[in-house]
Write a structure and sequence with these properties.
The protein is built from 4 helices and 7 strands; from the N terminus they run αββααββαβββ. By secondary structure, it is of the alpha+beta class. It has a single domain, classed as 2-Layer Sandwich (Fusion Protein Consisting Of Minor Coat Protein, Glycine Rich Linker, Tola, And A His Tag, Chain: A, Domain 2). It has a 3-stranded antiparallel sheet with strand order 4-3-7, covered by helices on one side. Strands 1-2 form a two-stranded antiparallel ribbon. It has a two-stranded antiparallel sheet with strand order 5-6.
């Protein structure tokens, strides 16, 4: 229960930061059209994303043995077709955890960014909490 409380608090705090930085705006265009702009995002919400990564990552035996906790920072592109490409580990906790999280993220689908009504590629940099126990 304590672990759940800590995870919930961390996810809530990081969620507020992400919500504050996300953009979804509609502006009138000179040609009497609505122009929509939206950042790429995980459709089920960021808390669901973080929980999925934390509890489904295949941690190495060394990571489990050493009770590795912390976060892995990744940079990746969300493509117009919702796929994930060019995943790079920016910071890692060691024991192969960064590569394991990278594998998980590569399998996901995100809602693509939209600029002027068109789906476009967008780079995201995200921290994923990890707990190998």
């Amino acid at each position: 229960m304590k672990t759940f409380s800590i995870l919930s608090s961390w996810l809530l705090a990081s969620g507020f930061w992400q919500i504050a930085s996300a953009q979804n705006t509609t502006t009138p265009d000179k040609q009497n059209m609505q122009v929509t702009t939206q950042d790429a995002f995980y459709p089920k919400g960021e808390q669901a994303l973080y929980a999925y990564i934390m509890y489904n990552t295949k941690y190495s035996q060394d990571a489990i043995k050493n009770y590795v906790t912390g976060s892995v920072e990744l940079s990746f592109d969300v493509m117009p077709d919702s796929s994930i490409k060019n995943v790079k580990v920016i910071s890692d906790v060691g024991y192969g955890v960064g590569d394991a999280v990278k594998v998980m993220v590569e399998q996901l689908k995100f809602a693509p960014a939209i600029q002027m009504g068109m789906r476009v590629k967008m780079n995201l940099i995200m921290d994923f909490p990890v707990k190998a126990h």
